[in-house]
Amino acid sequence: MDLETARTIIAGARAHGQSAGFKPLTVVVLDDGGHVVAVEREDGSSMKRFEIGYGKAHGALSLGMGSRSIMGRAEQQPYFIAAVTSAVGGALVPVPGGVLVKDADGTLLGAVGVTGDISDNDEAAAVAGIEGAGLTAQAD
Q: Which CATH superfamily is domain 3-134 in?
């Protein structure tokens, strides 16, 4: 995941959110090693949104699945998710909005975490940004 791709993803996610009338978003893009490549916080986005977006993306990378699937695991196996959250230093937010990013060959490039609106809308913005950059989104 390079900086230019991350910026393209962020621009697409923000454009989707604005066109859909979402609340102000924060978009966090991580590379496949979990390092922050880029982040933007829209004016009016509430505090701690970076940590939430990071937790969505980091959790997706940590478990190799979108945060929507992590939410399902949390509902079925709450002790497991609690243990994983502890193991990853608390950086796991098990609600939709954390989406894995893959290239056309299926190679993992990183993850995007979006927060600010309801979780389903956060996920839709992340997917729009990823697909707008010509990449594949794995939300589940």
A: Haem-degrading domain (3.30.450.150)
Average pLDDT over residues 53-80: 97
Q: List pLDDT tens digits, range 82-139.
A: 999 999 999 999 999 999 999 999 999 999 999 999 999 999 999 999 999 999 999 9
**What is the structure's pLDDT at 12?**
98
Distance CA 42, CA 70 (A): 26
Sign of CA dihedral 126, 109, 107, 68: negative
Residue 36: Cβ-neighbour burial (10 angstroms; 0-12, 13-18, 19+):
middle
pLDDT of res. 68: 97
Phi first, then psi: what are they for 15, rounded to 5°?
A: -60, -40
DSSP symbols for 39-105: EEE-TTPPTTHHHHHHHHHHHHHHHTS-HHHHHHHHHH-HHHHHHHHHHTTT----SS-EEEEE-TT
Q: To which residue do tokens 């990378």 refer?
A: 61
